[in-house]
Amino acid sequence: MLEMAGVPAVFLDRDGVINRDKGFIIDPDDLDLLPGAAESMKRLRTAGFKLIVVTNQSGIGQGLYTETDLAGVHDRLEALLAAEGVHVEGIYFAPDHPERPTARRKPGPGMLLEAAEAHGIALRDSAMVGDQVRDAEAGMNAGCVLNILVPPGAGDPRFPAAPDLAGATAMILNILGTSAGKIV
Ligand SMILES: [Mg+2]
């Protein structure tokens, strides 16, 4: 198989990593960034990592809200991040019903593979941060080299743990930072 050159990325789960986990978020005004999240994302981006959000949104598959509702929530997420000087390359969501998952629904790697192809990402130089075991599993299944869990999912012995995205960011910059540093 040909080795494809590519840029490093950090894949980020949404709820519980970037913003507060409140269950299904339907009203954009219910979305609040977690303290330090935007600053961490800015550090990662400055170090040369592309930022890709990957979020399971089974509420769509269950008929609880629509893709249009979700687009409104993600407009707000991007606006809040932009106000802190952070741009994300993409927000990918899996609308699958939990009982009828495709490979796009985490722990499937589908969203990460799709983003890698679209954005020229080298998965073996990339990391995933999530707050559920299935997030880290999705990163592992996609071939990311570093798959970090924050609470409440932290504690699975297969994956390194960090207290929050700031802690995960420090770990990523320590372990992968030098390889990413040349790209800004
Ligand atoms: Mg989450």
Please, could you describe this protein's structure?
With 184 residues, the chain is an alpha/beta fold. The protein has a single domain (9-179), classed as HAD superfamily/HAD-like (Rossmann fold). It is 36% helix and 13% strand. It contains 6 helices and 5 strands. It has helices at 37-46, 58-61, 67-83, 110-119, 133-142, 165-180, and strands at residues 9-12, 50-56, 90-94, 127-130, 146-149. The chain has a 5-stranded parallel β-sheet with strand order 3-2-1-4-5, with helices on both faces. α1 packs parallel to α6. Bound molecules: magnesium ion.
Say how many strands there are: 5
Major sheet description: 5 strands, parallel
Shape, per Cα inertia axes: globular
**Mean pLDDT rating:** 94
List the helices and strands and how they pair.
Elements: E1 9-12, H1 37-46, E2 50-56, H2 58-61, H3 67-83, E3 90-94, H4 110-119, E4 127-130, H5 133-142, E5 146-149, H6 165-180
Parallel strand pairs: 1-2, 1-4, 2-3, 4-5
The structure holds magnesium ion (MG).
Magnesium ion (MG) is lined by residues 13, 15-17, 21, 130-132.
Brief descriptors of the model:
globular; binds magnesium ion; alpha/beta; Rossmann fold; 184 residues
